[in-house]
Specification:
This protein is mainly β. It has no helices and 34 strands. Strand 24 and strand 25 form a beta hairpin.
């Protein structure tokens, strides 16, 4: 097994960033109304709001897990697992999985705990529940598969060879009968039954004079159309790759640390300085850039038809035109930053804050 260190860049000493400009009054070109709200408790870990059909799955740091109907906000079940959570939630509609801060994988069925397993380390990536299995990737990029019914460990693979990886959530998603994982700067396709590697696509190459400079990792929050996937390499590049042909379609230098969103025409992402960039999906050329939100610590944008929803660290969600980034409106939540990237459930935009507020909006 290759030894790998988890490295956290957050909190590193450095010059203070410039103060963002005052926001212009909110535009009111897009009529949006809040249709319901709920609360789950404080969220202090990398929550992924899991959407399965019209159901959403959320969790709080204290160990409360809930399933809600995205149309009405009605809570379908809530479970208290009695331990703090470090990563969650994975779900397939039947099974729900989270990881606790003491490194335990906990799996529930319709809110009832059915098994738990001790992991080799504390995971920060939400588990993936798919195909009768629960997949976990740990910070050292060890992949582990469990039977979702019994909790039996089916296989374990140490896929990493990088000396440093980010102590952040990793890329992990299914495509057909293949499990796709981000390992360093590479996308790796695995047989989910055995863990054996099927293919590998180098998305971003490690460079630099020392280990920190050479750090490269892929960010969760990908834009997938069929077998084509666009994604970001941490503070390095944005790229689109073909999983079918196992090759990079295009790659462009980009300095950001959040995921991307997109459609068949454009791919959207935010840079470290708060610029919003739209790349043409076909060739990676920049279609437009927006600098009016610079230094606002923007999160991963979410494409809602012709509108982009872009969260910032002040707890606002900016609604922008996908055509040119012009302002259409602004959503005000509870004053705390988002605890997870927004999700779109049908026509309902669902956002969760670090204070634990769940807010659902729809166009009027």
């Amino acid at each position: 097994m290759v030894g790998v260190m988890a490295f956290v860049l957050a909190g590193c000493a450095g010059p203070s960033k410039p103060k963002p400009a005052e926001l212009a009054p909110a535009a009111s070109l897009l009529a949006v109304k809040k249709v319901w709200s709920a609360s789950i408790g404080e969220v202090g870990f990398p929550l992924e709001v899991k959407l399965v059909g019209s159901d959403i799955y959320v969790a709080s740091s204290s160990g409360s897990i809930s399933s809600l109907d995205s149309d009405t906000g009605v809570v379908q079940w809530t479970s208290e697992i009695g331990k703090k959570i470090s990563a969650g939630v994975g779900a397939d509609g039947e099974k729900t999985a989270v990881v606790t801060t003491d490194g335990e994988l906990v799996v529930l069925q319709k809110g009832k705990r059915i098994w738990q397993q001790k992991l080799t380390s504390v995971a920060v990536t939400p588990p993936l529940v798919a195909g009768g299995r629960v997949f976990v990737i740990t910070p050292d990029r060890t992949l582990i598969a469990f039977d979702s019914e019994t909790g039996k460990r089916l296989w374990q693979q140490q896929r990493g060879s990088d000396s440093l990886v980010l102590d952040r959530a990793a890329v992990l998603f299914p495509v057909g009968d293949t499990l796709v994982a981000g390992i360093g700067g590479r996308l790796v396709g695995l047989n989910p039954l055995t863990g054996t590697q099927r293919w590998e696509i180098p998305v971003s190459v490690s460079r630099g004079a020392n280990e920190v400079d050479r750090l490269v990792d892929l960010m969760p929050g990908v834009s997938r159309l069929g077998s084509d996937v666009c994604l970001r390499a941490y503070q390095n590049a944005v790229a689109c790759v073909s999983l079918a042909n196992q090759k990079v379609i295009w790659s462009r230098a980009a300095n950001g640390f959040t995921g991307v969103s997109g459609d068949d025409k454009l791919v959207f992402g935010t840079e470290a300085d708060g610029r919003l960039v739209a790349w043409r999906r076909a060739d990676g050329e920049v279609a437009w850039q927006l600098a009016t939100l610079k230094w606002r610590d923007l999160g991963t944008p979410l494409l809602l038809g012709e509108t982009l929803a872009v969260p910032d660290s002040a707890g606002l969600v900016h609604l922008l035109s996908k055509t040119d980034g012009s302002s259409l409106g602004r959503l005000v939540l509870d004053g705390s930053p988002l605890g997870a990237s927004p999700v779109l459930a049908g026509k309902t935009l669902v956002v969760v804050t670090q204070k634990g507020g769940i807010f659902a909006f729809r166009p009027e």
